[in-house]
Design a protein that fits this description.
2 copies of one chain form a homodimer.
Chain A: H1 3-16, H2 29-36, H3 40-52, E1 56-59, E2 63-66, H4 71-82, H5 90-111, H6 114-125, H7 133-150, H8 154-163, H9 166-176, H10 181-197, H11 201-230
Antiparallel strand pairs in A: 1-2
Helix pairs in contact in A: 1-3, 2-3, 4-8, 5-7, 5-8, 5-10, 5-11, 6-7, 6-10, 7-8, 7-9, 10-11
Chain A binds a DNA duplex (30 and 30 nucleotides) through helix 3.
Chain lengths: ~230, ~230
DNA sequence: GGCGGGGAAACATCCGAGGTCTGCGTGAAG
DNA sequence: CTTCACGCAGACCTCGGATGTTTCCCCGCC
Protein backbone atom coordinates (compact mmCIF):
# COMPACT_ATOMS: atom_id res chain seq x y z
CA UNK A 1 0.00 0.00 0.00
CA UNK A 2 1.36 3.43 -0.93
CA UNK A 3 2.66 5.45 1.98
CA UNK A 4 0.15 8.17 1.24
CA UNK A 5 -2.80 5.82 1.69
CA UNK A 6 -1.17 4.59 4.83
CA UNK A 7 -0.97 8.16 6.06
CA UNK A 8 -4.65 8.68 5.28
CA UNK A 9 -5.53 5.64 7.35
CA UNK A 10 -3.31 6.72 10.20
CA UNK A 11 -4.79 10.19 10.34
CA UNK A 12 -8.26 8.69 10.12
CA UNK A 13 -7.31 6.38 12.94
CA UNK A 14 -6.10 9.24 15.09
CA UNK A 15 -9.47 10.94 14.64
CA UNK A 16 -11.67 7.89 15.10
CA UNK A 17 -9.74 6.79 18.16
CA UNK A 18 -10.27 10.18 19.72
CA UNK A 19 -6.62 11.14 19.77
CA UNK A 20 -7.65 14.04 17.58
CA UNK A 21 -10.97 15.60 18.53
CA UNK A 22 -13.11 17.84 16.32
CA UNK A 23 -11.54 21.28 16.20
CA UNK A 24 -8.12 20.01 17.25
CA UNK A 25 -5.08 21.20 15.47
CA UNK A 26 -2.70 18.76 13.81
CA UNK A 27 1.04 18.92 14.33
CA UNK A 28 2.73 20.99 11.68
CA UNK A 29 3.47 19.33 8.37
CA UNK A 30 7.12 18.66 9.07
CA UNK A 31 6.49 17.14 12.50
CA UNK A 32 3.57 14.98 11.42
CA UNK A 33 5.50 13.83 8.37
CA UNK A 34 8.44 12.60 10.40
CA UNK A 35 6.12 11.05 12.96
CA UNK A 36 4.26 9.10 10.28
CA UNK A 37 7.51 8.29 8.57
CA UNK A 38 7.06 9.92 5.19
CA UNK A 39 7.94 13.07 3.31
CA UNK A 40 6.06 16.30 3.47
CA UNK A 41 4.98 15.94 -0.16
CA UNK A 42 3.30 12.62 0.46
CA UNK A 43 1.73 13.84 3.67
CA UNK A 44 0.33 16.82 1.85
CA UNK A 45 -1.39 14.49 -0.61
CA UNK A 46 -3.04 12.68 2.27
CA UNK A 47 -4.15 15.90 3.91
CA UNK A 48 -5.52 17.21 0.64
CA UNK A 49 -7.61 14.09 0.19
CA UNK A 50 -9.04 14.33 3.70
CA UNK A 51 -9.69 17.97 3.00
CA UNK A 52 -11.85 17.19 0.00
CA UNK A 53 -14.22 15.15 2.13
CA UNK A 54 -14.27 17.90 4.75
CA UNK A 55 -12.57 15.94 7.48
CA UNK A 56 -9.63 18.31 7.69
CA UNK A 57 -9.51 22.05 7.23
CA UNK A 58 -6.21 23.68 6.36
CA UNK A 59 -5.75 27.38 6.91
CA UNK A 60 -2.73 28.92 5.31
CA UNK A 61 -0.55 30.78 7.75
CA UNK A 62 -2.30 29.11 10.67
CA UNK A 63 -2.39 25.34 10.69
CA UNK A 64 -4.39 22.24 9.87
CA UNK A 65 -7.47 21.45 11.94
CA UNK A 66 -9.98 18.66 12.31
CA UNK A 67 -13.39 19.94 11.27
CA UNK A 68 -16.46 19.70 13.46
CA UNK A 69 -17.25 16.37 11.78
CA UNK A 70 -20.92 17.24 11.83
CA UNK A 71 -23.12 15.13 9.56
CA UNK A 72 -24.05 18.16 7.54
CA UNK A 73 -20.46 18.96 6.78
CA UNK A 74 -19.43 15.46 5.85
CA UNK A 75 -22.52 14.63 3.84
CA UNK A 76 -22.26 17.90 1.98
CA UNK A 77 -19.14 16.48 0.43
CA UNK A 78 -21.41 13.94 -1.17
CA UNK A 79 -22.82 16.65 -3.38
CA UNK A 80 -19.44 16.71 -5.02
CA UNK A 81 -19.68 13.00 -5.68
CA UNK A 82 -23.23 13.12 -6.99
CA UNK A 83 -22.17 15.67 -9.57
CA UNK A 84 -20.22 12.99 -11.37
CA UNK A 85 -23.17 10.79 -12.12
CA UNK A 86 -24.42 10.66 -15.64
CA UNK A 87 -27.99 11.12 -16.76
CA UNK A 88 -28.77 7.45 -16.93
CA UNK A 89 -28.55 7.11 -13.16
CA UNK A 90 -30.63 10.16 -12.33
CA UNK A 91 -33.74 8.03 -12.17
CA UNK A 92 -32.18 5.84 -9.50
CA UNK A 93 -31.36 8.89 -7.43
CA UNK A 94 -34.84 10.20 -7.91
CA UNK A 95 -36.27 6.89 -6.75
CA UNK A 96 -34.36 7.25 -3.51
CA UNK A 97 -35.65 10.78 -3.11
CA UNK A 98 -39.11 9.39 -3.60
CA UNK A 99 -38.50 7.28 -0.54
CA UNK A 100 -36.81 9.88 1.62
CA UNK A 101 -38.76 13.05 0.89
CA UNK A 102 -42.20 11.77 1.82
CA UNK A 103 -40.81 10.42 5.07
CA UNK A 104 -39.06 13.69 5.82
CA UNK A 105 -42.17 15.65 4.94
CA UNK A 106 -44.28 13.58 7.29
CA UNK A 107 -41.78 14.11 10.07
CA UNK A 108 -41.72 17.81 9.34
CA UNK A 109 -45.49 17.97 9.59
CA UNK A 110 -45.18 16.76 13.14
CA UNK A 111 -42.18 18.73 14.24
CA UNK A 112 -42.09 22.09 12.50
CA UNK A 113 -42.90 25.05 14.71
CA UNK A 114 -45.30 27.80 13.77
CA UNK A 115 -42.45 30.14 12.98
CA UNK A 116 -40.84 27.51 10.74
CA UNK A 117 -44.14 27.15 8.94
CA UNK A 118 -44.48 30.88 8.58
CA UNK A 119 -41.08 31.04 6.92
CA UNK A 120 -42.12 28.26 4.58
CA UNK A 121 -45.20 30.25 3.62
CA UNK A 122 -43.10 33.33 3.00
CA UNK A 123 -40.95 31.30 0.70
CA UNK A 124 -43.92 30.22 -1.37
CA UNK A 125 -45.30 33.75 -1.50
CA UNK A 126 -41.90 35.12 -2.46
CA UNK A 127 -41.95 33.53 -5.88
CA UNK A 128 -42.88 35.80 -8.76
CA UNK A 129 -45.69 35.00 -11.14
CA UNK A 130 -43.33 34.33 -14.03
CA UNK A 131 -40.02 33.57 -12.38
CA UNK A 132 -36.71 33.06 -14.12
CA UNK A 133 -35.31 29.56 -14.27
CA UNK A 134 -32.70 30.47 -11.68
CA UNK A 135 -35.29 31.84 -9.25
CA UNK A 136 -37.47 28.81 -9.77
CA UNK A 137 -34.67 26.36 -9.06
CA UNK A 138 -33.51 28.31 -6.04
CA UNK A 139 -37.01 28.53 -4.63
CA UNK A 140 -37.78 24.88 -5.24
CA UNK A 141 -34.50 23.80 -3.70
CA UNK A 142 -34.99 26.01 -0.66
CA UNK A 143 -38.56 24.81 -0.17
CA UNK A 144 -37.52 21.19 -0.04
CA UNK A 145 -34.49 21.99 2.09
CA UNK A 146 -36.60 23.74 4.69
CA UNK A 147 -38.87 20.75 4.91
CA UNK A 148 -35.96 18.35 5.18
CA UNK A 149 -34.55 20.54 7.91
CA UNK A 150 -37.91 20.39 9.63
CA UNK A 151 -37.63 16.63 9.91
CA UNK A 152 -35.29 17.23 12.81
CA UNK A 153 -32.78 14.71 11.49
CA UNK A 154 -29.62 16.38 10.19
CA UNK A 155 -28.46 13.23 8.45
CA UNK A 156 -31.71 12.89 6.58
CA UNK A 157 -31.65 16.56 5.71
CA UNK A 158 -28.12 16.50 4.32
CA UNK A 159 -28.79 13.33 2.41
CA UNK A 160 -31.84 14.74 0.69
CA UNK A 161 -29.96 17.90 0.00
CA UNK A 162 -27.12 16.05 -1.63
CA UNK A 163 -29.32 13.79 -3.70
CA UNK A 164 -31.11 16.66 -5.31
CA UNK A 165 -27.89 18.23 -6.34
CA UNK A 166 -27.99 21.58 -8.03
CA UNK A 167 -26.69 20.15 -11.24
CA UNK A 168 -29.33 17.50 -11.55
CA UNK A 169 -32.10 19.80 -10.52
CA UNK A 170 -31.04 22.55 -12.86
CA UNK A 171 -30.82 20.11 -15.72
CA UNK A 172 -34.31 18.89 -15.04
CA UNK A 173 -35.84 22.30 -14.73
CA UNK A 174 -34.21 23.48 -17.89
CA UNK A 175 -36.57 21.30 -19.84
CA UNK A 176 -39.47 21.72 -17.50
CA UNK A 177 -39.98 25.45 -17.76
CA UNK A 178 -42.34 25.07 -20.65
CA UNK A 179 -45.90 23.81 -20.46
CA UNK A 180 -48.00 23.99 -17.32
CA UNK A 181 -45.47 22.14 -15.21
CA UNK A 182 -44.56 25.29 -13.34
CA UNK A 183 -48.14 25.91 -12.29
CA UNK A 184 -48.64 22.29 -11.29
CA UNK A 185 -45.46 22.26 -9.24
CA UNK A 186 -46.58 25.39 -7.47
CA UNK A 187 -49.93 23.81 -6.69
CA UNK A 188 -48.28 20.74 -5.25
CA UNK A 189 -45.88 22.81 -3.18
CA UNK A 190 -48.86 24.63 -1.83
CA UNK A 191 -50.62 21.38 -1.00
CA UNK A 192 -47.53 20.09 0.80
CA UNK A 193 -47.35 23.32 2.72
CA UNK A 194 -51.01 23.17 3.70
CA UNK A 195 -50.62 19.63 5.01
CA UNK A 196 -47.59 20.61 7.05
CA UNK A 197 -49.31 23.71 8.39
CA UNK A 198 -52.25 21.53 9.44
CA UNK A 199 -49.82 19.12 11.08
CA UNK A 200 -51.16 16.21 9.07
CA UNK A 201 -48.24 13.82 8.62
CA UNK A 202 -49.96 11.31 6.38
CA UNK A 203 -51.44 13.92 4.12
CA UNK A 204 -48.07 15.61 3.87
CA UNK A 205 -46.44 12.29 3.06
CA UNK A 206 -48.91 11.59 0.31
CA UNK A 207 -48.54 14.96 -1.32
CA UNK A 208 -44.79 14.68 -1.20
CA UNK A 209 -45.01 11.26 -2.82
CA UNK A 210 -47.25 12.61 -5.54
CA UNK A 211 -44.90 15.49 -6.10
CA UNK A 212 -41.72 13.48 -6.44
CA UNK A 213 -43.41 10.74 -8.40
CA UNK A 214 -44.65 13.38 -10.83
CA UNK A 215 -41.15 14.61 -11.46
CA UNK A 216 -39.99 11.03 -11.78
CA UNK A 217 -42.65 10.19 -14.31
CA UNK A 218 -41.95 13.25 -16.34
CA UNK A 219 -38.23 12.57 -16.31
CA UNK A 220 -38.75 8.97 -17.31
CA UNK A 221 -40.79 10.05 -20.29
CA UNK A 222 -38.30 12.72 -21.27
CA UNK A 223 -35.31 10.44 -21.03
CA UNK A 224 -37.18 7.74 -22.91
CA UNK A 225 -38.02 9.98 -25.83
CA UNK A 226 -34.51 11.43 -25.81
CA UNK A 227 -33.10 7.93 -26.04
CA UNK A 228 -35.29 6.88 -28.92
CA UNK A 229 -34.63 10.16 -30.69
CA UNK A 230 -30.91 10.12 -30.14
CA UNK A 231 -30.09 6.56 -31.00
CA UNK B 1 -8.28 29.62 -4.38
CA UNK B 2 -5.26 27.33 -4.16
CA UNK B 3 -4.03 25.98 -7.48
CA UNK B 4 -4.66 22.45 -6.28
CA UNK B 5 -8.36 23.09 -5.70
CA UNK B 6 -8.47 24.73 -9.08
CA UNK B 7 -6.97 21.60 -10.58
CA UNK B 8 -9.57 19.45 -8.85
CA UNK B 9 -12.34 21.55 -10.34
CA UNK B 10 -10.78 21.46 -13.79
CA UNK B 11 -10.38 17.70 -13.76
CA UNK B 12 -13.93 17.37 -12.48
CA UNK B 13 -15.03 19.64 -15.27
CA UNK B 14 -13.25 17.54 -17.86
CA UNK B 15 -15.11 14.49 -16.63
CA UNK B 16 -18.54 16.07 -16.22
CA UNK B 17 -18.31 17.74 -19.61
CA UNK B 18 -17.57 14.42 -21.22
CA UNK B 19 -14.08 15.30 -22.35
CA UNK B 20 -12.93 12.43 -20.17
CA UNK B 21 -15.21 9.41 -20.26
CA UNK B 22 -15.29 6.56 -17.72
CA UNK B 23 -12.30 4.33 -18.29
CA UNK B 24 -10.37 7.00 -20.16
CA UNK B 25 -6.75 7.57 -19.36
CA UNK B 26 -5.52 10.96 -18.28
CA UNK B 27 -2.46 12.59 -19.83
CA UNK B 28 0.68 11.77 -17.91
CA UNK B 29 1.40 13.82 -14.83
CA UNK B 30 3.93 16.12 -16.47
CA UNK B 31 1.71 16.89 -19.46
CA UNK B 32 -1.45 17.43 -17.46
CA UNK B 33 0.44 19.59 -15.00
CA UNK B 34 1.73 21.93 -17.67
CA UNK B 35 -1.65 21.96 -19.35
CA UNK B 36 -3.39 22.97 -16.13
CA UNK B 37 -0.59 25.37 -15.33
CA UNK B 38 0.80 23.96 -12.09
CA UNK B 39 3.56 21.77 -10.80
CA UNK B 40 3.46 18.01 -10.64
CA UNK B 41 3.47 18.09 -6.86
CA UNK B 42 0.33 20.14 -6.70
CA UNK B 43 -1.33 18.12 -9.41
CA UNK B 44 -0.59 14.95 -7.50
CA UNK B 45 -2.45 16.34 -4.51
CA UNK B 46 -5.48 16.94 -6.69
CA UNK B 47 -5.30 13.47 -8.19
CA UNK B 48 -4.93 11.89 -4.79
CA UNK B 49 -8.03 13.65 -3.53
CA UNK B 50 -10.09 12.51 -6.50
CA UNK B 51 -8.68 9.08 -5.92
CA UNK B 52 -10.05 8.91 -2.40
CA UNK B 53 -13.58 9.41 -3.65
CA UNK B 54 -13.01 6.80 -6.35
CA UNK B 55 -13.30 9.14 -9.28
CA UNK B 56 -9.76 8.45 -10.45
CA UNK B 57 -7.72 5.30 -10.31
CA UNK B 58 -3.96 5.53 -10.51
CA UNK B 59 -1.90 2.50 -11.42
CA UNK B 60 1.79 2.77 -10.87
CA UNK B 61 3.80 2.02 -13.96
CA UNK B 62 0.72 2.39 -16.11
CA UNK B 63 -1.21 5.61 -15.86
CA UNK B 64 -4.13 7.41 -14.28
CA UNK B 65 -7.63 6.46 -15.36
CA UNK B 66 -11.18 7.65 -14.82
CA UNK B 67 -13.12 4.96 -12.98
CA UNK B 68 -16.40 3.55 -14.21
CA UNK B 69 -18.17 6.21 -12.15
CA UNK B 70 -20.83 3.67 -11.23
CA UNK B 71 -23.05 4.64 -8.30
CA UNK B 72 -21.82 1.68 -6.31
CA UNK B 73 -18.21 2.77 -6.64
CA UNK B 74 -18.79 6.41 -5.79
CA UNK B 75 -21.21 5.81 -2.95
CA UNK B 76 -18.92 3.21 -1.46
CA UNK B 77 -16.56 6.06 -0.75
CA UNK B 78 -19.23 7.30 1.60
CA UNK B 79 -18.51 4.42 3.91
CA UNK B 80 -15.21 6.10 4.56
CA UNK B 81 -17.03 9.27 5.52
CA UNK B 82 -19.56 7.56 7.74
CA UNK B 83 -16.74 6.01 9.75
CA UNK B 84 -15.91 9.43 11.13
CA UNK B 85 -19.21 9.98 12.84
CA UNK B 86 -19.35 9.76 16.56
CA UNK B 87 -21.78 7.72 18.58
CA UNK B 88 -24.14 10.58 19.23
CA UNK B 89 -25.16 10.71 15.57
CA UNK B 90 -25.64 6.99 15.12
CA UNK B 91 -29.30 7.32 15.97
CA UNK B 92 -29.81 9.79 13.16
CA UNK B 93 -28.22 7.37 10.73
CA UNK B 94 -30.35 4.58 12.04
CA UNK B 95 -33.46 6.70 11.58
CA UNK B 96 -32.59 7.06 7.92
CA UNK B 97 -32.06 3.33 7.63
CA UNK B 98 -35.49 2.92 9.14
CA UNK B 99 -36.84 4.81 6.18
CA UNK B 100 -34.75 3.21 3.47
CA UNK B 101 -34.62 -0.44 4.47
CA UNK B 102 -38.37 -1.07 4.62
CA UNK B 103 -38.76 0.54 1.22
CA UNK B 104 -35.93 -1.52 -0.21
CA UNK B 105 -37.30 -4.68 1.35
CA UNK B 106 -40.71 -4.06 -0.18
CA UNK B 107 -39.15 -3.52 -3.57
CA UNK B 108 -37.09 -6.66 -3.16
CA UNK B 109 -40.21 -8.65 -2.36
CA UNK B 110 -41.52 -7.73 -5.77
CA UNK B 111 -38.36 -8.05 -7.80
CA UNK B 112 -36.18 -10.81 -6.39
CA UNK B 113 -36.00 -13.94 -8.48
CA UNK B 114 -36.40 -17.43 -7.11
CA UNK B 115 -32.67 -18.02 -7.30
CA UNK B 116 -32.00 -14.77 -5.43
CA UNK B 117 -34.42 -15.92 -2.77
CA UNK B 118 -32.78 -19.32 -2.58
CA UNK B 119 -29.43 -17.67 -1.94
CA UNK B 120 -31.01 -15.58 0.77
CA UNK B 121 -32.33 -18.74 2.41
CA UNK B 122 -28.92 -20.37 2.20
CA UNK B 123 -27.49 -17.35 3.95
CA UNK B 124 -29.92 -17.70 6.85
CA UNK B 125 -29.29 -21.43 7.11
CA UNK B 126 -25.55 -20.92 6.99
CA UNK B 127 -25.42 -19.30 10.40
CA UNK B 128 -24.28 -21.49 13.26
CA UNK B 129 -26.39 -21.98 16.36
CA UNK B 130 -23.95 -20.03 18.53
CA UNK B 131 -22.02 -17.89 16.09
CA UNK B 132 -19.05 -15.70 16.89
CA UNK B 133 -19.56 -11.97 16.89
CA UNK B 134 -17.67 -11.69 13.62
CA UNK B 135 -19.81 -14.32 11.93
CA UNK B 136 -22.95 -12.70 13.21
CA UNK B 137 -22.02 -9.27 11.95
CA UNK B 138 -20.93 -10.63 8.58
CA UNK B 139 -24.11 -12.64 8.19
CA UNK B 140 -26.36 -9.78 9.24
CA UNK B 141 -24.58 -7.37 6.94
CA UNK B 142 -24.76 -9.76 4.00
CA UNK B 143 -28.44 -10.49 4.61
CA UNK B 144 -29.38 -6.85 4.44
CA UNK B 145 -27.07 -6.24 1.52
CA UNK B 146 -28.68 -8.97 -0.53
CA UNK B 147 -32.08 -7.50 0.11
CA UNK B 148 -30.91 -4.02 -0.78
CA UNK B 149 -29.42 -5.44 -3.94
CA UNK B 150 -32.75 -7.08 -4.65
CA UNK B 151 -34.43 -3.69 -4.72
CA UNK B 152 -33.01 -3.28 -8.20
CA UNK B 153 -31.80 0.22 -7.45
CA UNK B 154 -28.00 0.41 -7.20
CA UNK B 155 -28.09 3.84 -5.62
CA UNK B 156 -30.44 2.69 -2.91
CA UNK B 157 -28.36 -0.41 -2.35
CA UNK B 158 -25.08 1.44 -1.99
CA UNK B 159 -26.65 4.03 0.24
CA UNK B 160 -28.02 1.45 2.64
CA UNK B 161 -24.73 -0.34 2.55
CA UNK B 162 -22.83 2.77 3.48
CA UNK B 163 -25.19 3.83 6.21
CA UNK B 164 -24.81 0.59 8.08
CA UNK B 165 -21.08 0.88 8.08
CA UNK B 166 -19.09 -1.99 9.49
CA UNK B 167 -17.79 0.11 12.29
CA UNK B 168 -21.17 1.20 13.50
CA UNK B 169 -22.65 -2.20 13.11
CA UNK B 170 -19.83 -3.95 14.87
CA UNK B 171 -20.04 -1.54 17.72
CA UNK B 172 -23.73 -2.19 18.11
CA UNK B 173 -23.43 -5.94 17.98
CA UNK B 174 -20.64 -5.96 20.48
CA UNK B 175 -23.12 -5.06 23.17
CA UNK B 176 -25.98 -6.99 21.67
CA UNK B 177 -24.53 -10.49 21.78
CA UNK B 178 -25.83 -11.12 25.23
CA UNK B 179 -29.43 -11.72 26.12
CA UNK B 180 -31.98 -13.07 23.70
CA UNK B 181 -31.32 -10.38 21.12
CA UNK B 182 -29.54 -12.85 18.86
CA UNK B 183 -32.50 -15.18 18.78
CA UNK B 184 -34.94 -12.36 18.22
CA UNK B 185 -32.88 -10.96 15.39
CA UNK B 186 -32.79 -14.36 13.77
CA UNK B 187 -36.55 -14.67 14.05
CA UNK B 188 -37.06 -11.31 12.43
CA UNK B 189 -34.64 -12.09 9.64
CA UNK B 190 -36.60 -15.24 9.04
CA UNK B 191 -39.87 -13.32 8.96
CA UNK B 192 -38.45 -10.83 6.48
CA UNK B 193 -37.24 -13.68 4.35
CA UNK B 194 -40.63 -15.40 4.42
CA UNK B 195 -42.38 -12.24 3.34
CA UNK B 196 -39.96 -11.77 0.46
CA UNK B 197 -40.25 -15.41 -0.56
CA UNK B 198 -44.03 -15.02 -0.61
CA UNK B 199 -43.64 -11.85 -2.68
CA UNK B 200 -45.60 -9.83 -0.18
CA UNK B 201 -44.22 -6.29 -0.39
CA UNK B 202 -46.28 -4.78 2.39
CA UNK B 203 -45.61 -7.59 4.79
CA UNK B 204 -41.92 -7.43 4.01
CA UNK B 205 -41.97 -3.69 4.56
CA UNK B 206 -43.61 -4.06 7.93
CA UNK B 207 -41.20 -6.70 9.16
CA UNK B 208 -38.26 -4.63 8.02
CA UNK B 209 -39.68 -1.65 9.88
CA UNK B 210 -40.13 -3.72 12.99
CA UNK B 211 -36.61 -5.04 12.67
CA UNK B 212 -34.85 -1.72 12.28
CA UNK B 213 -37.06 -0.03 14.84
CA UNK B 214 -36.13 -2.75 17.31
CA UNK B 215 -32.45 -2.07 16.87
CA UNK B 216 -33.14 1.65 17.11
CA UNK B 217 -35.09 1.28 20.32
CA UNK B 218 -32.45 -0.92 21.87
CA UNK B 219 -29.69 1.47 20.87
CA UNK B 220 -31.59 4.45 22.22
CA UNK B 221 -31.99 2.72 25.56
CA UNK B 222 -28.35 1.66 25.64
CA UNK B 223 -27.05 5.10 24.76
CA UNK B 224 -29.40 6.68 27.25
CA UNK B 225 -28.24 4.55 30.14
CA UNK B 226 -24.64 4.97 29.10
CA UNK B 227 -25.07 8.73 29.17
CA UNK B 228 -26.66 8.81 32.56
CA UNK B 229 -24.09 6.36 33.89
CA UNK B 230 -21.12 8.10 32.36
CA UNK B 231 -21.86 11.68 33.27
C1' DG C 1 3.20 -20.46 -31.23
C1' DG C 2 4.66 -19.73 -26.65
C1' DC C 3 7.82 -17.70 -23.46
C1' DG C 4 11.14 -14.89 -21.14
C1' DG C 5 14.23 -10.73 -21.19
C1' DG C 6 14.90 -5.91 -21.59
C1' DG C 7 13.78 -1.22 -22.38
C1' DA C 8 10.63 2.56 -22.17
C1' DA C 9 6.92 4.85 -19.88
C1' DA C 10 4.56 6.36 -15.93
C1' DC C 11 3.74 6.77 -11.24
C1' DA C 12 5.90 6.94 -6.11
C1' DT C 13 8.73 9.19 -3.07
C1' DC C 14 11.80 12.30 -1.40
C1' DC C 15 14.34 16.71 -0.75
C1' DG C 16 15.18 21.55 -0.46
C1' DA C 17 14.26 26.33 -1.62
C1' DG C 18 11.50 30.35 -2.03
C1' DG C 19 6.84 32.56 -1.61
C1' DT C 20 2.61 33.92 0.81
C1' DC C 21 -0.65 34.30 4.30
C1' DT C 22 -2.22 34.48 9.21
C1' DG C 23 -1.99 35.30 14.11
C1' DC C 24 -0.17 37.89 17.62
C1' DG C 25 2.79 40.67 20.36
C1' DT C 26 4.62 45.31 20.39
C1' DG C 27 4.54 50.08 20.66
C1' DA C 28 2.93 54.51 19.42
C1' DA C 29 -1.06 57.59 18.83
C1' DG C 30 -5.45 59.25 20.50
C1' DC D 1 -6.61 53.13 28.98
C1' DT D 2 -7.97 51.95 24.46
C1' DT D 3 -7.14 51.45 19.69
C1' DC D 4 -4.68 50.65 15.67
C1' DA D 5 -0.73 50.03 12.61
C1' DC D 6 3.54 47.60 12.25
C1' DG D 7 6.41 43.75 11.95
C1' DC D 8 7.99 39.23 13.14
C1' DA D 9 7.56 34.32 13.52
C1' DG D 10 5.19 30.27 12.28
C1' DA D 11 2.72 27.47 9.08
C1' DC D 12 1.06 26.32 4.77
C1' DC D 13 1.72 26.88 -0.71
C1' DT D 14 4.18 26.03 -4.81
C1' DC D 15 7.74 24.68 -7.39
C1' DG D 16 11.50 21.90 -9.76
C1' DG D 17 14.45 18.15 -9.93
C1' DA D 18 16.39 13.55 -8.74
C1' DT D 19 15.84 8.74 -7.80
C1' DG D 20 13.28 4.41 -7.00
C1' DT D 21 9.44 0.99 -8.49
C1' DT D 22 6.11 -0.98 -11.15
C1' DT D 23 3.91 -2.03 -15.34
C1' DC D 24 3.42 -2.56 -20.17
C1' DC D 25 4.96 -4.20 -24.39
C1' DC D 26 8.08 -5.16 -28.05
C1' DC D 27 11.56 -8.34 -29.48
C1' DG D 28 14.29 -12.25 -29.72
C1' DC D 29 14.71 -17.04 -28.42
C1' DC D 30 13.03 -21.74 -27.83
Amino acid sequence: MPVTDEAIDKIKGMIVSGELAPGDRLPKEADLASRLGLSRSSLREAVKALCLIRVLDVRQGDGTYVTSLEPKLLLDAMTFVVDFHRDDTVLDFLAVRRILEPAATAMAAQLMTESDIAELAALLEGLEESPTVEALVANDLEFHRRIALGSGNPVLCSLIDSLSGPTTRARIWRGLTQEDAVAKTREQHRAIYDAIAAHEPELARSWATVHVAGVEQWLRKTLGSADSAGE
